[in-house]
Here is the input.
Amino acid sequence: MKEKSKKFKYFTYIRSKFDYIMKKILVTGGTGFIGSHTVVELINAGYEVVIADNLSNSKTGSLEGIEQITGVKAPFERVDLCDKVAFEALLKKHRSINAVIHFAAFKAVGESVEQPLKYYHNNLTSLINLLDLMPQYGIENIVFSSSCTVYGQPEQLPVTEQSPIQPATSPYGQTKQISETIIRDVVAASDRIKSIALRYFNPIGAHASALIGELPVGTPNNLMPFITQTAIGIREQLNVFGNDYNTPDGSCIRDYIHVVDLAKAHVTAVSRLMENRNKKPFEIFNLGTGTGVSVLELITTFEKVTGVKLNYRIVGRRAGDTEQVWADTSFANNELGWKTLSTLEETLLSAWNWEKRINNNG
Ligand code: UD1
Here is the structure.
């Protein structure tokens, strides 16, 4: 009997070590911009990663980049998470997943206004399928990609996690708010599922190797890829949407965060959940630098660090734009134990190096 208990203890000990080494994380949307950088950081931190993506807004080139950077070929499944049968087949194939980081979603604000159902269907169905399947496959932890868009135009800056949620200005923003609500309700109803929602400010930049980065399909909606594409000559001119805002130089202010810093926050968040270090079953963190930068400041800094003059002009405001928003990062810094490391200059240079490399110009 004594022998048996000794053996059992030894077995439990070995299994706990094995579990630690083999922690397996499903990254949905893992070939995309933030997803691919997070996969790299997870692998670097010693996690096993399974990537799921339907490639609707990304290419398999990022898989090669991930492999070149890490030396690890993470298994990739081309799956549309709205297809529950296919999603379940993935979970059957890749057993014993410990956590999911759920990036997979559409994110173009303007398109969401034109095609709201596309956004509600994709962003919500995939999440509901995931939450529905998680308990059946023993998955208890989910990190969710949320956005500072939930704060709208905050009355007080910087924005803390307690700042009131404002009515969404687009169906895209609405899906982020609804998704957070769905997760909150599911977590409350379950005694096992735990979640962290990460509210991103404006992720930009690329991996220092320039092997992965942002690869917008068609004309970019976001400022950073528009800047780099203008600088390299793909776009003739950059339009600055408004210089009559109530800000020091009249252009909008955002909190631009290096995507690698953002990716590292996901490693911290997912390990917090898996190691039960979370204080509440559903936690929310702002992920930003804590510094607001205007569109015109971003352009000037880009020109300074790259030595490239940008052809830009001031045009009218873009409908639905928030005037200014930046993060209070103290909760993420103190409670999550994470902070950004990159300067704005390094961040902009990394975006430029990536643009040059993908155009075989670097
Ligand atoms: C928006 C969403 C954010 C979402 C992100 C991802 C809102 C309020 N924000 O961020 O939630 O996660 O898109 O797609 O819904 N700009 C120009 N010229 C350009 C492009 C942009 O001047 O060609 C300006 C914009 O007016 C804005 C700033 O640059 O002031 C940043 O814009 P963008 O990169 O599109 O991000 P957000 O609108 O902040």
About this structure: The two ends are 68 Å apart (CA to CA). The mean pLDDT is 95. The chain is about 45% helix and 15% strand. Residues 107, 109, 147, 149, 170, 173, 202, 221-223, 226, 238-241, 252, 254, 295, 318, 321-322 surround uridine-diphosphate-N-acetylglucosamine (CB under 6 Å).
